[in-house]
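Final report, closing paragraph on structural work. Over the funding period we assembled a curated collection of sequence-structure pairs, and we close with a single example.
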Amino acid sequence: MLLLAVVGFFATACDTNKPISQTHKFKNGVWERFEYLNFQLPVEDSKAAFDLSAELSFTSAFPAESLYVNVVMTTPSGEERIKDYNFTVKDANGNFLGTKKDGVYRLSVPIRKGIQFNEAGICKFEIENLMPKYVTPGIIDFGIKLQKKEK
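Its predicted structure, as stored:
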């Protein structure tokens, strides 16, 4: 079963028109403070520009207006780019953003636009939960998506 998932992932990654993504699903909809997320996305075209986004799924149990995270991106050439992000999930009136289906909100948040890589290979991401409490309820999953920029 695992082999089938890996083969499917790389088959999708080879289609240059489809985004490359990975998602982590949280047990019981809770992200613990020191539960680091690690993703590895293949980059095959070093000449292309890509848009990078965070893909969030959450419920109304999410307790804050924003999700605070630290993203460490290690490019295929070994360069590290580190930045804290504040992903807004509620508008000024306290309403959740994104599309809602079956009680779950889905939101795509841009991280970087038009990023280019010096060489092809694996781009690694480490995501740290920076929320002030030990557990953050209401988080169903968190994903990273790398999409070739439209020309």
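Residues 1-8 have pLDDT under 50 and may be disordered. Residues 2-14 form the longest helix (13 residues). We thank the funder for supporting this effort.
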